[in-house]
Write a structure and sequence with these properties.
This is DUF222 domain-containing protein. The protein is mainly alpha-helical. The protein contains 26 helices and twelve strands. Among the domains are: about 170 residues, no CATH class; about 80 residues, no CATH class. The N terminus is likely disordered.
């Protein structure tokens, strides 16, 4: 509990606490920007007997997994893709398959997969997965591979790292996130589920824009799918929904199942079976069932910075979600929008608005380009100049103005030797019209060339005459005449190929211009966001700075949310979690009315502001955990505080949610131990039973909530309440 203090010491205490918070924030940022790995070591000492042999074998498996990954990557480097047929060549890999290959496999020959499959007696798909996984670990997650080799991680830890960290496109951000996760997992019991949850939070916080784009794509691909189950006669229906929708749907079905009585004459149904039956009744037989209406309770945890417009991710029933999704959910459920306009739940503008603008000339730069670096503006100007050049070249080609005034003579040893390339034919036709071919009067050449420059390009008669002249001009190559119309067809083919190449080059130029314009727009948008309220809120060192950086409308919306009570979409009054700025530990769980009472000296028209209050506040109670309860069951505030502090089962490695009813355990049995926050811990049902029934286990709970568990073999593991 925060100790009571006089007003004079309150200012000093706050100044010192703020200094520590700022220093801690700087240290966290410095650590967040660091890519240094910790010292890797197994988190638990080796036990004795068979369990120790299991641990040793598991660490050896992890070490050999890293050895295999490095060997597979080395093998892949010895099979470069340059030995394969290039795209477009006959027999090459199809464009669709090439586009579907992971990026790490692009430099590797497609036949390396078959060779690996034969060597390991696995399928081609398994070989491709092994290649992809090994190359990703070696080239994108080197720290994870080193931790695996040292026994600090095991095989199960690879999947959350490969799924959440490896896809980060920015090399620096990916290295920072990997290092942060490795530092967090060092020296502690960390299950793959816990590492995955931490990875989702770090990726959402550091790579927010990319995470929102992935969320937008996932929302666009949401749907319901049907697949066969392993048992004949059974099928599974899966639905891809957002986190709030999925959790609300699941909890609603659970509430319906809990309210459904068992048929005394029928078989006993599990809760899952009841949920499946309720789903069928609600969807297939609407209005024909007697299911009572239910309310769904979702626990939302969000920081002040996240609610005020920042990027700090939030939680919905323990699942990490972007801050904007929670803001949109609360605006809907609380029924209090304030002056904030409704925004898209993903926090991303409409895709139509995010498309790059059409090509622009250098004299009409985009707004983003005008604020870019000089070198970038120069690049935009060069691209516009290149586009102008292509326009001019296209006009001259279509107007027949591109005539080589001084063509190089064809070497004698190349005339009539082998097949004739179409481009060579075009050059030779041009040469035949401008030089004097053997056996032809120069005046005839002049008469065939002079009208071509003056005649309109769409004159059928002139085109027919030029076509008739081409075979005559081509006669005399090795003394063999060319068939009538052959030169004209070749000329048309060359012209069409040239126009196609020209259009492709122009399209490529436009694509490059679009990419640069989009990059400039994204850079300008990020810069504007950083300098705006959202960026200022995200960079705040504490909640007070976040509130000061927020706009008045955001503060008004937050105040309205905190002042809301049960009703509408809210089941309970919103609570304020007061946490330690250094450790993130929960200090108090309060609400707006209690916070106002605590900050008041109880005298009329007086607040606890140092500029206006000079009264002695020594007798005023501070904020902290609720006091002990006399009986066995905790009071409502105490029950709420312990569940908010622990949130998940406190047994090492377990991530099940603490049930909403019961399962708060007295570490020291009542009445020998009091019913207080220092003697209560939350468990799931299974681990709660294990605490009381499993022989040889010891549990010790400190006053700050640290739980130490000792196994029957003597291994000791400590867990802390999850920080906020």
């Amino acid at each position: 509990m925060i100790e009571r203090m006089t007003e004079g010491s309150a200012g000093d205490w706050y100044a010192e606490a703020r200094r520590r918070a700022v220093a801690s924030s700087r240290r966290r940022r410095a650590g967040a920007a660091s890519t240094e790995w910790p010292e890797f070591a197994p988190p638990v000492a080796l036990s004795e007997g068979p369990l120790g042999a299991v641990q040793a074998a598991d660490r050896e498996i992890a070490r050999l997994t890293s050895v295999r990954a490095r060997a597979v990557a080395e093998f892949a480097e010895s099979r470069p893709a340059t030995a394969d047929r290039a795209q477009g060549e006959p027999g090459a890999m199809s464009a669709a398959r090439w586009a579907a290959r992971p990026d790490v496999l692009r430099p590797v020959s497609e036949w390396a997969m078959q060779e690996l499959a034969v060597a390991l007696s696995i399928t081609a798909g398994a070989a491709e997965s092994l290649l992809t996984r090994s190359l990703t670990l070696v080239h994108r997650l080197p720290g994870t591979l080193a931790a695996l080799e040292a026994g600090a991680l095991h095989q199960g830890h690879l999947w959350p790292m490969l799924e959440h960290v490896a896809p980060i496109a920015d090399d620096r951000v990916r290295a920072e996130v990997e290092a942060e996760l490795l530092r967090w997992a060092a020296g502690r019991i960390t299950t793959p589920a816990q590492l995955g949850a931490k990875a989702r939070r770090e990726v959402t916080r550091r790579d927010c824009r990319a995470a929102l784009r992935r969320l937008q794509r996932a929302i666009a691909e949401r749907g319901v799918r049907l697949r066969s189950a392993a048992t004949d006669g059974m099928s599974s229906v899966t639905s891809d929904l957002t986190v709030p929708e999925a959790h609300a749907l699941y909890r609603a079905l659970g509430a319906y199942a809990d309210a459904l009585p068992d048929d005394p004459d029928g078989p006993v149904r599990t809760r899952g079976q009841k949920m499946a039956d309720c789903l069928l009744d609600l969807v297939l037989r609407p209005g024909e069932h007697d299911l009572p209406p239910v309310r769904v309770l979702l626990t939302v945890v969000a920081s002040v910075a996240g609610l005020a417009g920042g990027d700090e991710p939030a939680e919905i029933d323990g699942q990490v979600v972007p801050a904007e999704m929670v803001r949109a959910l609360l605006r809907t459920l609380a029924g209090h929008r304030g002056d904030q306009p409704a925004t898209d739940p993903t926090g991303i503008d409409d895709p139509a608005d995010s498309q790059p603008p059409p090509h622009r000339r250098a004299d009409a730069p985009t707004a983003a380009a005008s604020d870019a670096e000089p070198s970038f503006v120069a690049e935009l100007a060069d691209d516009a100049e290149l586009a102008d050049w292509w326009d001019e070249m296209e006009r001259r080609v279509l107007a027949d103005e591109l005539v080589d005034p001084d063509p190089e003579p064809l070497p004698d040893d190349q005339i009539g030797a082998g097949p004739i390339d179409p481009l060579f034919l075009a050059w030779m036709a041009d040469d035949a019209l401008h030089d004097d071919p053997p056996g032809r009067d120069p005046d005839d050449v002049a008469r065939s060339v002079a009208p071509a420059a003056a005649e309109p390009a769409n004159d059928p008669a002139a085109a027919a005459q030029r076509t008739a002249d081409l075979p005559a001009a081509a006669e005399g190559v090795n003394g063999q005449p060319v068939r009538d119309g052959w030169w004209a067809a070749a000329d048309r083919a060359v012209e069409e190929a040239g126009l196609a190449a020209l259009e492709a080059a122009r399209s490529l130029g436009r694509a490059r211009q679009a990419v640069r314009t989009a990059t400039a727009a994204d850079t300008a948008d990020e810069s504007a966001w950083q300098s705006g309220p959202g960026g200022r809120v995200s960079s705040a060192v504490d909640a007070l700075d976040a509130l000061a950086a927020a706009e008045e409308t955001q503060r008004a919306w937050l105040a309205g949310l905190l002042a809301a009570t049960g009703g509408g979409g809210l089941v309970d009054r919103p609570r304020i979690a007061v946490t330690d700025a250094l450790t993130g530990a929960l200090l108090a769980l309060t609400d707006l009315p209690e916070l106002r009472r605590t900050a008041h000296c109880s005298r009329p028209a007086c607040t606890r502001h140092p500029d206006r209050c000079t009264h002695d506040l020594t007798g005023r109670p501070g904020l902290g955990p609720p006091g002990p309860t006399d009986g066995y069951r905790p009071s409502a505030p105490l029950d709420r505080f312990v569940r908010a502090r622990d949130r998940r089962c406190r047994f090492p490695g377990c991530r099940r949610r603490v049930p909403r009813g019961g399962e708060l355990d007295h570490n020291t049995r009542h009445p020998l131990g009091e019913t207080s926050a220092a003697n209560l811990a939350g468990y799931c049902t299974t681990d709660h039973r294990g605490k009381h029934q499993a022989p040889g286990w010891r549990y010790e709970l400190d006053s700050d909530g640290t739980l130490t568990v000792t196994t029957p073999t003597g291994l000791t593991v400590s867990t802390d309440p999850p920080p906020y």
